Inverse folding.
């Protein structure tokens, strides 16, 4: 089955800096890669996703890149703000409506 | 649109009792629902996938007789934790995908249910 690895497990940045979180996956059939933000005790919230027919996608301060050959994808957050502090999870699935395999999570802390 | 609710939001029960958690899609038809379990400071682990009207598919290591899943309609799935024990204490989250949403293949998550077994 699919295996998703995520790094780093914790990331501390200064407000205004950029943050990058990286994930690798094992199943070459995976073609849908969402990123979720989860605050303590709450549901995961989709912040951006990318499909395998696209190499990069951007939404304001958030971008995701995908390298299918190397089987890795990354989340980039620019101009970080304190409210970006949360746990971020990457995930992969074969088709978006199918089961997701989650990465281990990254605790992002944005310091003033 | 694409709202998923869960009930209850938290529950405390005694060891040996059973607990039922409901997951509802409020404004779309959930052809597929997923149940996840999340222990503190850990990732979401998929427990099972259920399709409306058919038996759930359980992930390896998840006891189907302990975690009973029913997906009887396109808007409701239930997870029953039978004979709960303290090690079953966790955050249980459902998600749903299906027709009638803006992006049909996206999964929409419920708010989660915090289960504490004494």
């Amino acid at each position: 089955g699919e295996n998703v690895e995520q790094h780093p497990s914790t990331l501390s940045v200064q407000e205004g800096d950029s943050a990058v979180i990286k994930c690798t996956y094992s199943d070459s059939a995976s073609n849908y890669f969402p990123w979720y933000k989860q605050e303590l005790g709450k549901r995961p919230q989709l912040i951006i996703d990318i499909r395998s027919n696209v190499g990069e996608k951007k939404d304001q301060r958030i971008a995701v890149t995908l390298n299918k050959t190397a089987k890795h994808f990354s989340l980039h957050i620019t101009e970080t703000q304190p409210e970006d502090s949360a746990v971020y999870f990457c995930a992969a699935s074969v088709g978006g409506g199918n089961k997701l395999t989650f990465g281990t999570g990254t605790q992002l802390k944005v310091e003033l | 649109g694409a709202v998923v609710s869960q009930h209850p939001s938290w529950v405390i029960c005694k060891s040996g009792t059973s607990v039922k958690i409901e997951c509802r899609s409020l404004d779309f038809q959930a052809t597929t629902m997923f149940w996840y379990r999340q222990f503190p400071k850990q990732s979401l682990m998929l427990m099972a996938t259920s399709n409306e009207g058919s038996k759930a598919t359980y992930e390896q290591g998840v006891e189907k007789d302990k975690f009973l899943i029913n997906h009887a309609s396109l808007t409701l799935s239930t997870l029953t934790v039978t004979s709960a024990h303290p090690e079953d204490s966790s955050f249980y989250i459902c998600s749903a995908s299906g027709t009638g949403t803006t992006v049909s293949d996206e999964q929409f998550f419920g708010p989660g249910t915090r289960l504490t077994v004494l």
